[in-house]
Amino acid sequence: MTEYSRMAKGSYIVSGGTLGVSAPSVKVINLPFVPDYVELINYTQAITPAQHGIPFAFWDASVPPVTVSSVQYDTIAEVFNATPVLTTDSVRVGGGISAFSAGLALQYGARKQIIGATKANPVVFNVTAHGYSVGDIVVLEGLYQSSSTGMPQIAGMPFRISAVTDADHFSIVWDATGSNYTALSGSPVGSFVKKVLYPYLYEPGVNFIEAITLGTTTTIVTTTPHNYVVGQEIAFRIPNAWGTIELNSLPNVQSPGSPIYGYVVSVTDNQTFVCSINSSSYSAFVVNQPVTSVPGLTFPQVVAVGDVNTGGTLISSGSPLYPSPEFPTSTLRVPTINGPAIRGAFVNNTSAGFVIGAGASRTDTTSFVGGSDGDRIEWRAYLHDYSSP
Amino acid sequence: MILRDYIVSAASEINAGGGSNGFNPTNLGVSDFSLVATTLDTNNAYKFMSGIEGMDRFGTGPVRSAYFMLASTELQSDFDQLTSGTGGFLSQWNYPTNASALPSEYGSVFNIRILTSSEAPVARNAASNSVGTLSDVYYNTVLGKQAITHINQDGYSMNLIYRDPYYSGMLAQNATLAVKFAQAQAITQDTAIRNLLSTRLSNLGV
User: How many Å apart are CA B21 and CA B206, to the nearest integer?
Assistant: First the structure.
């Protein structure tokens, strides 16, 4: 009966988060299968009981989530109370343990109505119970306040969520202070947001440009993590309306037939890098696009080219013998399940496994299933041959 | 599917603007085909196919040398409606000869020959217009000959593995079927590839 069951276990040290105060970073566990049951043992919190600690947690894919006050819960947690004695609690869907199978592009989460958005930088969106976390990638739709106002100029572009104010508000970084942008209010018809479920399947992917700082070198800010490394050769695709078209890799007039490319000379953070092109005399980047330009408006982009992509990670002191590529490339790097990749090739980052989220438990809202900094967590994941139901 | 999603993820995009349906991107207009072909020509991309010279046959017309566009079968009714004063869609059936037409080839517009597949990438309900109507967004990949490649590692490309039940488990209950491959993808010339994003004009009624 267990001929084709899969079992896996492992452990890791938690990074970030403080007991009873804040959640650690989301933890992604890649596996060669999609589990239907996962259990966690936080050895540190089990051995040293303290209020808000969660020593044990469980998740079963075949058990439907339980709805309490319109919120669904699917991860069961055992939480130490003030005594400390173990009590039972739960974590909302997506905030606790959840499985994933990242194989196909263009997969999105549920579409959610946008109630309003600020005319500011960053733009703060009001969406009831959005369920998003910092770092999630979302795509916006519509964004018309009327047929000629709103901010449809950024609909269709992917954005990284930069901040989550509360359960109903999140932010993206974009300069919407220009005269052509109008705040959204009153749940404009057709205005939605949805999460990109698997934004990093093939890296480094095409990136959309949020800002350009001109100078002897050129600083680029992208709307999502760029996933470039120092030495990466890049090309720009900036339509006329966005201004800095001199960066485009049209044929080089001094060397006919040769495109103009740049190189990444430094990576500032996951969404900012510096490129080698001297843009001191180039046109300014224009984000204040008119609403009338929207049907057919193509977004400014930068793409990886050439022979140095992030496909290969060099062996270095202390690294694995065959290091996997890691994304993003600045901080919070996550190794892919791949072995060493060919330098110069793009990385296939399709994967499966489970995620330990950053959500708090329902009753004790300052206890986190992911533990706190320095905790040792053991996980066990299963895919059963037979499950009833 | 891997190469398809890889191109969707890694190649740059142009939003169609030649159509009239009010979405961003719009439905495909003949000017979108002209724009993409011009872009690839300017970037010195190689065309896949030579032109087909006109012949003295009713209902046919010459075909230009062309790049390939990989598009969804759901756009075929849109292609049928593409016309302009300077030409427009030419069905594969109206080529002077079908000798060089591929089985999946639906027709051509200017310097682009269109191959359709039900596996072409589509983002469902991904665009919304000013009155809140939703539309699917299609990723139509237009590429020159030197645009992409894949690299076979370890000297093999792909293995189809079949193990009958006797060898797949001690209870001999189930067979095993798998595909194993060791490949890496590469865009060999980024200036020779574009994803032309579009919505759809016609209502499929499905």
Answer: 19
pLDDT digits (tens, 9 = 90+) for A28-86: 898 889 999 999 999 999 999 999 999 999 999 999 999 999 889 999 999 999 999 99
ipTM given for this complex: 0.85
Side chain identity at residue A21, one-letter code = V
- All domains of chain A in start order, with CATH: 6-103+352-383 (no CATH), 112-195 (2.40.30.20), 200-348 (2.40.30.180)
Shortest Cα–Cα distance, A168 to chain B (Å): 22
Encode pLDDT of A353-373 as tens digits: 999 998 899 999 999 999 999
**Chain B partners of A101 at a C-beta cutoff of 8 Å?**
none
Q: Are residues B166 and B71 in the same domain?
A: no
CB contact under 8 A, A139 and B5: no
Helix extents (H) in chain B = 2-10, 30-42, 76-80, 165-168
Q: Is residue B90 part of a domain?
A: yes
For residue A101, give how far its alpha carbon lies from the nearest alpha carbon of chain B (Å). Answer: 15
pLDDT tens sequence across A237-291: 999 999 999 999 877 777 777 778 899 999 999 999 999 999 999 999 999 999 9
Total domains present in chain B: 2
> Which of A2, A346, A386 should be substituted to probe chain B, the one whose Cβ sees the most B Cβ atoms within 10 Å?
A346
**pTM to 2 decimal places:** 0.83
Amino acid, res. A193: V
Query: Domain range for residue B71?
Result: 2-145+188-198
For residues B152 and B87, state if they share a domain.
no
Residue B103 CB burial class (10 angstroms; 0-12, 13-18, ≥19): exposed
